Amino acid sequence: MKETGSISIHTENIFPIIKKFLYSDHEIFLRELVSNAVDATQKLQSLARQGEFTGELGELKVRVTVDKEARKITISDRGLGMTAEEIKKYINQIAFSGATEFVEKYKETDANAKDQIIGQFGLGFYSAFMVAKEVEIWSKSYKEGSATAHWVCDGSTEFSLDEPTGEHEKAERGTDVVLHVADDSDEFLDETRLRGILTKYCKFLPVTIEFEGEVINNTDPIWTKQPSELSDEDYKKFYHELYPLSLDEPLFWIHLNVDYPFNLTGILYFPKVKDELQLQRNKIQLYSRQVFITDEVKDVVPEFLMLLHGVIDSPDIPLNVSRSFLQADAAVKKINTYITKKVADKLSSLFKQDRAGYEEKWGDIGMFVKYGMLSDEKFYDKAKDFALLQNTDEKLFTINEYTEHVQTNQKDKNDTTVVLYTNDAEAQHGYVAAAKERGYDVLLFDQVLDPHFVGQLEQKVEKTSFKRVDAAPVSHLIEKDETTESVLSEDEQTKLSDTFKTAIANDAMHVKVTALSPQDAPVLITQNEFMRRMKDMQRTGGGGGMQMFGAFPDSFDVTVNANHPLVQKILADGGEKLAKQAFDLALLAQGMLKGEALTQFVKRSTELL
């Protein structure tokens, strides 16, 4: 007997959700319908384990087919199927979740049931109407003697439900969902488009998914296994399964596996991190019970860990009603904290167990570790023991090791350890060489984050200051109680200063005559350490107050060495031309002499020879 009626919409459960606006992306319909088919299959397996189903399970596949001419997409399963009464209960009452009821019924007798059931809202089926003008369900329950149930709806609240016989009767248990594709959804009749959607969302579903005769999923991804079952090759192979276009091997990985206080599995890979901060094309993928949800995981994973690649799977991550977006809550924060701790523990373990191997990888992971230290206070507390500093001799030290290494020779008159560094060892070679001649050590901070990292270290490491090696004449970098007397009188120093100011004729260059060693350069160009560092930080993404420093014009100190023979010759001869030449030499040493000024310098050099 054919029945007609109206679908009961439980607004107290779904609020004012209209099917056309439930999902932001229409392609989600295929994920939802295939997930439902997988649910039905796993429910039957659960019943078999309980002994409630004693028949033959047979081949449990979900099949997706498309008939472009007939404008039909069909999703078929051999799961437990539905009777007409069950269709009225689970389909006609929107937001009554069959999965939820099933889990409640069997949670005590089948511990696997909860983790294996995907649906939680009872809304996924209705995503079909985003692309279909009419949807049919042909279903036959696993229960003995069940009749075929046939349900039809055009997307309104009206439906028809009957139990066909004869040639229209369904031959075997399970469900076929048939979508009659709407005129404005032609794209979903294209095989390539459908295969892409299935590969994106269903690649790791736990039941075989077959599309036009081809299996598109891996039902047993390695994150569902125990680490003891896996080899390094298994992890590498899976990495390339996730990112088939990646040419690099991962450096190492972390296998996540926790069931309390939340359920979380996954694998995070450490890629080679380049010396640049850009979004990686290979993002971390978030799954819920092996269904792909999103690769936008900023709430689950701390920002600095977004440089990692891999998979996270958790049924405890709260999603919005369309399972498309995360909803931040306490559980998400706990997962976020847990992942940070696991990453820190992994790095610490690698450092302690194989320091030589860790040092070999430092060039690839240093950026990541520094980013973490700058972003997360708790990560800094752990990472300070395995973060490495590299000097210009390519030796690596922990932060504590380095401060101990230099404190004997690099303490100033206030008992503060002065750490010298260069951000360009080649361009600042002369300054580095001068510092090393004095027995000083020089660190290399030439990565994009280093201006911020230097500032952080200066705040964290007690009684330590950091100076770029070209921030002052070498004898003034580390101030001692020693003083150097000038061979010039005050009048001579004033005259010398005026000569250089006239020769330079640049308000951004602040000339000062200072008594240095005769072995030091005749003219040095330096920039105030604080201002230069603030401007560097602003250029590399410093926020807030850094912007004001970026707006300031560049300003440099020109130190004229009163005790250098060349400077004394300039004073004696009153030679502005020679003063300009000495100044240009200092510019050249800083890589600041370019264009017309460089051409004039070369021409003047020829004349002076």
UniProtKB/TrEMBL annotation:
Keyword Magnesium annotated: no
List, alphabetically, the InterPro entries matched. HATPase_C_sf, Heat_shock_protein_90_CS, HSP90_C, Hsp90_fam, Hsp90_N, Ribosomal_Su5_D2-typ_SF
Question: What's in the keyword line of the UniProt record?
Answer: ATP-binding, Chaperone, Nucleotide-binding
Protein family membership: Belongs to the heat shock protein 90 family.
By what name is this protein known?
Molecular chaperone HtpG
* UniProt gene name: htpG
